[in-house]
Design goal:
The chain is 44% helix and 19% strand. The chain is α+β, with helices and mostly antiparallel strands. The protein has 2 domains: 74 residues, Winged helix-like DNA-binding domain superfamily/Winged helix DNA-binding domain (Arc Repressor Mutant, subunit A, Orthogonal Bundle), CATH 1.10.10; 180 residues, Beta-Lactamase (2-Layer Sandwich).
């Protein structure tokens, strides 16, 4: 069977989009400005293809010229600021700031994507010595307190059926056996707080709790610090107060207009993050 012109056009568009995103994802914390040659090497695309894509991405505002190279454009920042996760961040920032100032520790907020946590906010003291969870970073949920807090709110029997047998490992302390991890999550549910001791980064301790709005977990918050300064009961209670405040603010926001529910990172009608093909 020969390919129709419409199928051929769709395939070509998909190929162009894939290549464009390969270019965009070549940028990272250590490569915020890149030349054409650097982008070609990082993306694995021919220089001629990169040259054409760069011109179009600059026209669209996705990239901008920067001296002899290119950088991500503010157009992408504008798009990112309109996501439901960014909306949740805007609602939560006063409470996150208050918690960080009171505790003097690192405070993060994240949402769940597949079996990963994606950080939407991170507030840290000036003397912080670890920088694992930058805004936008994606880490395995099984290795972080904030990820455990999110996963523990799901149907654990359903989760167990979808988890791979072996989970990602960031340190020797990470829980990599899926059955052991699900049992660990049952303890999180019972205690109402997720804990992590050097599982994402050595010498780092964290506790995390979910933010539940109208019966649905929309985000989670964690407090992190060095293991030589254990997080005590006062920190745990302050975190509990913060997630309650965030949940109340989210509920108030939705109550003003039920249509706003779709502006939450996740609503009650959404399927589990890992069950969407």
């Amino acid at each position: 069977m020969t390919e129709s012109p419409s199928d051929s056009c769709s395939t070509e568009v998909a190929s162009i989009l894939n290549k464009a995103f390969d270019l965009l994802y070549s940028f990272n914390d250590s490569s915020r400005v890149m030349t054409l040659s650097e982008l070609a090497r990082a993306s694995g695309l021919p220089k001629s293809t990169v040259h054409r894509l760069l011109a179009r991405l600059v026209d669209l505002g996705a990239l901008e010229h920067h001296r002899s190279g290119y950088k991500l454009g503010l157009g992408l920042l504008q798009l990112g600021a309109t996501t439901p996760a960014a909306n949740m961040r805007d609602l939560s920032i006063p409470f996150l700031v208050a918690l960080q100032r009171w505790s003097g520790l690192t405070v993060t907020c994240a949402v769940l994507r597949d079996f990963d946590t994606v950080f939407i906010e991170r507030l840290a003291p000036l003397d912080e010595t670890f920088h694992l969870a930058r805004v936008g970073a994606r880490l395995p949920a099984n290795c972080t307190a904030i990820g455990k807090a999110l996963l523990a709110q799901e149907d654990l029997d359903d989760l167990a059926a979808f988890l791979p047998d072996r989970l990602p490992q960031l340190t020797p302390h990470s829980i990599t056996d899926s059955a052991e991890f699900v049992e660990h999550l049952r303890i999180v549910v019972k205690e109402g707080v997720a804990r992590e001791y050097g599982e994402a980064q050595l010498d780092l301790e964290s506790i995390g709790m979910p933010v539940v709005v109208n019966g649905m977990t929309v985000a989670a918050v964690a407090v992190s610090g060095p293991t030589h300064q254990p997080l005590g009961s006062r920190i745990e209670e302050a975190l509990r107060t913060t997630v309650r405040q965030m949940a109340a603010r989210g509920s108030e926001y939705v109550a003003c207009d039920r249509a706003r529910e779709r502006l939450m990172p996740r609503t009650i009608s959404d399927p589990a993050p890992w069950s969407v093909s």
